[in-house]
Transcription elongation factor Spt6 (Brettanomyces naardenensis), 1483 residues
Amino acid sequence: MPEETKDSTSAIDKESIVEGEGEGEVKVKKTEVSHSGLIDDAASEDEGEEGEEGEAEGSGLGSGSGSGDSSEEDEDEDEDEEAIRKVREGFIVDDDDEDEEGEGEEGVVRRRKHKKRKHAAAGTAEELDEDDLELLRENAGESPSGVVEKSKFKRLKRGADEATEVNGHTKGLTEMFSDEENEEAGSEEAEDDLLEATRERQQRAGMPGEFDDFIEDDELSEDDEDRDERLARMRSARVKNNFAQESQIDQDKMDELYEIFGDGEEYAWALEAEHADIANKEGETVEGEGEDETEEQQVEYDEEGNIISTKPKTSSKDLKDVFEYEELKEHLLTDEDQKIRETDAPERYQLLRQGIVNYDLSDAEFVLKQQWIADKLYEEKAASFQDQKSIWDPFKDAVFHVVEFIARDNLEVPTIWNCRKDYTLHTYHEDDQLRVQKLLNENDLWRVVQLDIEYHALLDKRAGVKKLFESLHVVDPLYDEFVESAKTIAELQDLYDYINFTFSTLLREEHEKQVDSDPEKHKKKLHSRYNVFERIKADPVYDVVKAMGMTADHFGENVSSNTKLYVTEDPEKKPEELIQDAIAKGSRFRTEEKALSSVKHVFSEELSHNPKLRTHLRLAYQNYATVDIELTEKGRVEIGEKSPYADFKYAVNRAMESFTYQPDLFLRMLEAESLGLVHVHIGLKNAYQGFVDHLFTFLSSDGTSDVSNAWNTLRKQCLDLALGKLLPSVALGIKEKLGRDSRRLLFFEVRDRFLDKVDQAPYHPLPEAKGTIPRVLAMSNGDGKRDAAVLAVAMDYDGSVVENVKFEENFREAEFEKKFIALVSRFQPEVIAISGYTPEVSYFFKHVQELVKLNRLVVDSDAAKTNDDYQPDADSNEEPQSTSLPVIYVPNETARVFEHSERAKEEFGDKPRVAKFCIGLARYVQSPLLEYIALGDAITSVSVHKHQDLLTDERFRQAVQTIFVDMSCLVGVKINEAVRSEHLALMVQYIAGLGPRKAAGIIKGIEGTGGAIVRRDDLILKGITTKNVFMNCAPFLELPVPDRYDKDVELLDGTRIHPEDYELARKMASDALDLTDEDRQEIEQEEGGVVGKLYEEGTEKLDDLLLEGYADQLEEHGHRKRATLEMIKEELQNNYEELRKSFHVLDAEEVFNILTSETKDSFQEGQLIPVIIQRVDNRYLSVVTQSGVRGNISRSSIVPYNDPTNLLARYNIGQPVQAVIKSIEYADFRAELSLMREDVVNARRGMKVDRFKGLWDFEAEDADLRREQESEKIGSNETKRFIKHPFFRNFNAQQAEDYLASRENGDFVIRPSSRGPGHLTITWKLDNQLFQHIDVVEHEKLNDFTLGRVLQVGEFRYHDLDELIVSHMNKMHSKVDAMKSYEKFRNEPANDARSWLVRYSKANKNRSCYCFCFNHKAPGWFYLLFKLNDDTDKTYTWNVKVVPTGYQLHGNVYPDMVHLCNGFKKLLQNQLGGGNAGYGYGY
């Protein structure tokens, strides 16, 4: 046997199974297995051995039972020494081929007896020699041994293959989901008795054992196939559980993975076919089987030649071998995710640094990095410092330290802010007083993290430029000066272009050398756009360029220094004469014009490629350029008063710095430009000519002769040509930079706005209980309609739903009051939270307030104190007074997302939608931060900033997540509770140093150590996390102080103090107690130590400490701890004090905006808005807005005084009108409006636009206004049409849509058509904000004002409007409803439906993959989206039209959805079968 096989594993003892006589009694005993016994019992024992040993040994020993025929049983019992020798060479004799059809207890007993007989036979065989064995075979009528051995070895080879399938990775496809490796049998010291008992229990219950399905019959009956399929399913379930236990992946995530993507069994047929082919091929070979067998399996023997282990050589298959990469990426199961889990660095930093090859820099390079970041950050913050000169040095020092903390110490922002805050402050003495100036805030620290990544992008660009230049082996002073001084990627790009232009010939020659040396590697031909200039430089005409008197490099030096360092000298001859000389020398340019043109172009190129000139132009544009808006024809029409771009429609002369204070303005300009509405121009305008003249002074000569004038003219033409090439690219670069800066500023604006949302503690009515989680009763009646039921959810301190009540009565009834009072008395809430979907909820809110007041319901302060989180205010000595039970409005944005989320379905799937909404409200009251975190990716649907859409979703999520990190670390996480609560565990990922991967690892690690940790350092001692991660997360993982002190408990773990500062805290406690070193050492040996002693005697003693002197001493030793000492004192006096702001109770205006979805811009006094008349009285009009705000228009605001107009005759119910808001009553959701002409004329129709002289193009605005007025004269004298019908309205298209916006789907109006008197239009509401305008052609009209006798819609003809409504509109509506209620319909945009279709097809490969959705571009049509069964993500689209008789698809009409789907499948099948590829357009 080869030595490498013997050395594969160490020798171990074997286990033999000793059978008891009692039924199901199994006893495991360790013995030394003899070599011969091992041979004889190799197959028989495998079926009885316990599972773990089977995995270690079964590869070689138990595989023999995988295949065979019972007729060979006698051969297996009579094995000879030749068989033993073959086994030693790697073969395994297959002994046990017993028929396994009986699965009951009798079958088990029969197998055991059979094994005992084999043991006896083995002993007999051991005593016989070769001749005796041969004689026995002849007497038994068997074939000669050579023949037997030959056939037997062929079967053994097949058995070995099956063993590979059994114990290797291919024994079942579900094994792909397990990360278990084959281990040595001796290393698995499991509870064998328990495992064996478990196996027998599984067999009695009909479950498969470890090797039950390894014996296969040659021909399987249908029952056997069903049985195998059933056993495979149960085995798959067991493998899934084993994988989840052994891996670091949460069970919930694994369940979700298997549920969505399956367990991979759909691939089993392919793998089985593959292994069958391999087995068949190997089975054909008889000779040389021993060598092949050795290659297939790794068999190891002990010193006596006994087999001690056998392992199959199998290729490992991971999740990536079964699932698509994108699917694994979505569930964080890729190799990169595993690497992030294992790397000792903050997860967020690892993600940011992906793609950076050489992140760790040398000391010299690191200093350059620190300097660059300090310069960039100071440039952005300089305006915020008053004394900019004196602040630079301390600012630079602060930035240097922060960069080191981030880049080398791998500390996240909250850790720096909490534990290294002193380095962000400037402390100095002035007038004998200590002064502290804040240099950096949390936004600045996050900005340093961004700049750190940006700097490495700069390094990569610089490395690319260096590599290009060094390949040329030349020297260039400009390169040497510029390559290290370049501060931006744009400057390095300038240098890159300069090298390519200046040394284009060398670059081409170098490439040709590489092609000659290695043609295969450098097949691609180098194409250079500078070839024409190379030819000019080699031509005699280039002498004219050399005679310019000033090189491009010298000109760049003059410009950058703003001094004429180099003087221009004129040649003796004019340019024309030198050109003639060049032509005479044989120039390829035969005419003076062409030669002169070539001179201009080559010199202008040299000027335009000079890096210093480019840098100067870029700097000039940044400082002096202005932004102007030029309207396109499309923009002139589409940008109206209500457009989001109206405030810059005629903007001119906007300075660059003006966008610093309004970053969204420039981003909206870019957005409008991308839509083709405007052109954004950046230029110097009137200053341009002066700027060019100033540049020319550095290029021109001072001579006044004709020769000098001729040369200066040529130089000026070359400069103009160069600037013409440069300035557009410079302006584009400035536009891109301004866009980046604006997005950066908007990013931090979003951060600040979102901080206001989450920086609030849980609500509590008792001031002394700030930070305590309340008991909440959340109530809502949904949309507030009359028949809407009231639902209430009672949520306890721990977030559990104690009670869920549905009030069947109207909330105004007495029975409701009784049930409500009973609920409050029973639950004893500390706050009642109310919200809803519409302003109608306000009536319910006011009624509950009245009930609380009338019944004098109060908060039970004693019950509040029973809360474990109750923390009374240490400064309050007064007894708490009884507080009236508060009734508050709660923001509904998180609850609206939660009620429709998968999370709500999983947790509360049996509860109605409004109940889920109430649960979301209650959770918000208990922890606003946690509810926003729980939204996940749906956080993008939350309104944070009115211009947040200008950021990408990814950038917006980054801004929000950085706030989550800051606030989660400010609050801290009770880690042991997070292990037990999935809801609270969502917060762990935002603790410093962690992320979703590492947070899951910590929680799983704590679960594996008993479900809780006692000390913070357990995270390190128990191997739950690593050093750098621990240094980040430790102070933010709270372990509450126990009531009784214990030596195993560290009291400081219940504070925000970092473990590295524990010694400082103990020192402060010792000094406060006036302890000597000996006393302190003695007390430290007691339970609680010196900190516990301080808690017992009172933490107020810390107020007597002089922390300033202590801080000075520490600074002398190089430790800045002034702010840290103050924090330690605060934590010792009030550990984990609530630092967030109090819960923000909404005011009336905020409630108004939440329930109406209006904003200050859309609903304010003086605003012109559309309203719908609900009631007409001769004294007033009652109206309602689209958002549900009720309004009143008094007669005095409709017609002038003494005007006798009858309002009943002028206005109709349901009529839309434009009204001006005069006043708003936010609490009552009402408004006073006006229809007076002067009010309408002066009303604001959109956003407020500032029109300042010099910044607004009034002339262009007036010109466009005159043009618009002229175009509106058409039709001003036409008589409006009127038809007597209840559905007729004299609306235009926009008015019809406004009217139908607040009505039910399916409603419609009949209105005049813009096509003329021979047409009508029916505007029909299909869905929210989706309207179809149906053209009705009138035939047989008596005149223009009468209704036609025949009305035609497409091919359908009707005799009056009523018939049209019944036979056309009603049927169309029913067809649309049927489509919307069909299971394959997706009520979402087409792009979202396509994305869903792709995901669905990957998860359900055996199901039909198609769906329907609205065609928003053509209302009345639907998209039929489908995906073919291929590996691409390409989807195809057909169009379905709704008609009264059904659904029209490819000219065929189908009466219902079932027929439509069947027809679609037949059409698709026919087109595919016919080879027609044009069955739809793909995406």
Remarks:
- Residues 3-318 form one domain.
